[in-house]
Amino acid sequence: MNVKKVKALIAKELLVQSKDSATLSTMIVIPLLFGIMVPLLLICLGTDNPLVQSLGGMQFILNAASSKTAVSDVNPGSEVLYMVLMYFSIPVFMLLPTLISNVTAAASFVGEREQKTIEGLLYTPLNQQELLLGKIVASFAPATIITWLSVIVYGVILDTSGYHIFGRAIFPNSAWVLLSVIVMPLVSFLSTLLVVAMSQHMKTTKAAQSVSLVILVPFVGIIISQASSSISLGIGMTAIMGAVILLIDIMLFCFISKHFKSETLLISK
Q1: Domain tally for the chain?
Q2: Burial 213-239 (b: 16+ CB within 10 A, else e)
Q3: What is the largest CA-CA distance in the chain?
């Protein structure tokens, strides 16, 4: 394994991403929406707006809020908004690395076939392992970094703009730290691996991106479960989720490393 060659490939992939308008728009618009626009909108509307009041009228949300010890030291009346911003938004943020890495991985593998640029890459001194590793890292690393930046911006907004509502800085808590540092990179890596596994069987990037449904379905279930307060993504649940995703990542990476044949990217199925 030649590290310099892998680094050169990663740099090349990142340069291509920076010139791809579709990839760039995904990297910018989705984090902007989740990390800045939504929290600012909710905080600016305050606790008396119709949206929060309608949520407050749902007894299951109030019960969920009362079960959180951290809610007891926020200003009275802000409990529901606290729950929405600190707990119900967690599954939504887990979609960020999935969506972004899905787009970058599809463009990296299937996109090169579509643009007829994969032939030149296969004739470089890179061996198959170096090619696979470089493309995988270049796909999931930007998604992870962008997600981290989104979480940081999200936290700054909550602790500054929301201080007058909650009476204290509320972000982060232990679940958010564990989620951001461990689970989100693992999710990004898994999304990338799923696209890689399907890249040899897909004709277009859109078809390859459809594999994201495999990983999005469980998160939709988590969002629904959060809304009904049937589960809570605390430290224990986050740790279990991270362990399960790590195991899946390892098994899938080993499978792909063994069966991936870069030459098949030359062939349109």
Answers
A1: 1
A2: eebbeeeeebbeebbebeebbeeebbe
A3: 65
Answer whether 174's CB lies under 8 Å from 235's CB. Answer: yes
Domain span at residue 21 reads 3-266
pLDDT in tens, 37-70: 888 888 887 766 666 555 544 445 555 555 555 5
Q: Is the dihedral of CA 218, 219, 225, 228 positive or negative?
A: negative
| pLDDT tens profile 88-142 | 787 778 788 888 888 888 777 776 666 665 555 556 666 777 778 888 888 888 8
CA dihedral 233, 72, 227, 185 (to 10 degrees): -30
Residues contacting residue 54 through CB under 8 Å, at least 6 positions apart: none
